[in-house]
């Protein structure tokens, strides 16, 4: 859309730069019919929680606002979704490429380096 300057109560806000999802912010993406079910393994206390999850495609953004003591999960229409973003109120913005078959609640993942290699390959395929 273009760049914007955003102020909150007179203070200019800087753009958040997303980090790759990590072991402390595990995300699981499951394809269910025509939707992605996104679940984040994260505490949802009043002091530490996921504020929102968003799904980005080349021409649209879908966003679900989350609240403390709720579940860190959302459903998004697939519609060309290529990247999932989520915001932790303490650790900041995170993102992950949507990779078919990579995230699986039963299998999970233990090897961060192997996961990043798979994400790089998927990033090349989804460009």
Give an account of the 3D structure.
- The chain is mainly β and 127 residues long.
- Helices cover 11% and strands 40% of the residues.
- The chain has one helix and ten strands; from the N terminus they run ββββββββββα.
- The chain has one helix spanning 112-125; strands spanning 6-8, 11-13, 19-20, 26-32, 35-41, 50-56, 61-65, 73-77, 83-88, 92-97.
- It has a five-stranded mixed beta sheet with strand order 3-10-9-6-7. A three-stranded antiparallel beta sheet has the order 4-5-8, with no helix packed on it.
- The longest helix has 14 residues, at 112-125.
- The model is unreliable at 100-109 (pLDDT under 50).
**Alpha-carbon distance between the termini?**
19 Å
Give the strand order of the largest sheet, numbering strands 1, 2, ... along the chain: 3-10-9-6-7
Stretches with pLDDT under 50, minimum 5 residues: 100-109
Name the structural class. mainly beta
Count the helices. How many?
1
Q: Please describe the biggest sheet, giving its number of strands, its sense, and whether it closes into a barrel.
A: 5 strands, mixed
Number of separate strands: 10
**Oligomer kind:** single chain
C-alpha geometry? globular
Strand content: 35-45%
The amount of helix comes to 10-25%
Provide mean pLDDT, rounded.
83
């Amino acid at each position: 859309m273009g760049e914007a300057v955003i102020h909150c109560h007179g203070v200019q806000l800087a753009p958040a730069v997303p980090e790759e999802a990590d072991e402390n912010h595990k995300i699981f993406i499951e394809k269910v019919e025509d939707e992605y079910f996104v679940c984040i393994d994260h505490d949802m206390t009043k002091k530490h929680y996921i504020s929102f999850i968003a799904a980005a495609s080349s021409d649209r953004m879908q966003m679900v606002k989350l609240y403390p003591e709720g579940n860190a999960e959302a459903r998004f229409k697939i519609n060309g979704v290529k990247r999932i973003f989520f915001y932790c109120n303490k650790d900041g913005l995170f993102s992950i490429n949507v990779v078919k078959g990579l995230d699986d609640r039963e299998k999970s993942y233990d090897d961060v380096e192997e996961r990043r290699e798979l994400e790089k390959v998927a990033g090349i395929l989804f460009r």
